[in-house]
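Bench notes, afternoon.
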Amino acid sequence: MTANTDEPRKTGPLLTVPAPGRAKAADDRAPWQMSDHFATAIVVGIIVIAMQISSYFVPAYIMPSPVAVVKSLADSLVTDYAQILITMLRLVISLMIAIAFGTAIGIITGTIASVRPYLRALVFIDTGIPALSWMLMAVFWFKDPEVRMFFILFVIIVPIYALNIHDGIRAMSKDWLEMCESFRPTRLQVLRYLIIPHIIPYVLMTTKSTVGYATRMLIFAELIGSSLGIGARMGLAQATFHMDSVIAWTVLLVVINMLAQGSVGLVERYLLRWRDEAAVR
């Protein structure tokens, strides 16, 4: 008698792990639970209605109508697309380099005990310095705005990855390490076959939680230390009392953040496609 491979594997009274390759039954959920997109559309609709109602009672420089915001957003996409590209390039390049350095520092602190206290002390000191302090110091230290933006994001993002990767390595099961060492591997082989595959979920998790924070820090840094980019354009809109432009740029940043989160999610599903998904009943 053959087993039914379509049945979920039960790991406990409350935790169910679906069999690999089995899609969730959409009919098991109510219409309003079908997707997060439905909830997002409802929230956006409520915000738009609230903006429209508020625009009837206050001046446009306090709360413009949704139509004015959409018009300003369309104009910005046409006339200021170069500013958007500048901000996106700054974000992507800085984030990629910060991920590489932060992951490397996390691996070193998690595997080399002799340098662990010194690097961790440096990371903890970095995390205790406010972002505004780094921004002001960057303005004094660096003349080139691009160097300023990169420096600010680098010193803010690297400690986040270093700490998370370090904690991920320290949380590794000792059984895995003992099994790997039974084959007498070299340090490079341990790094390649055990540590790197183990920390990939931590890197992706940190990226999903960091990309929005990094975007906000970059916009703030552009507002203070650069004349180019979305942050600089938002500062100009604020100085000229164009609230519709401020909200339009904000909407664009929300969309960019959602696209970035979705892209990281796609990469995560591809790299971790071998994992079964646990669902709490």
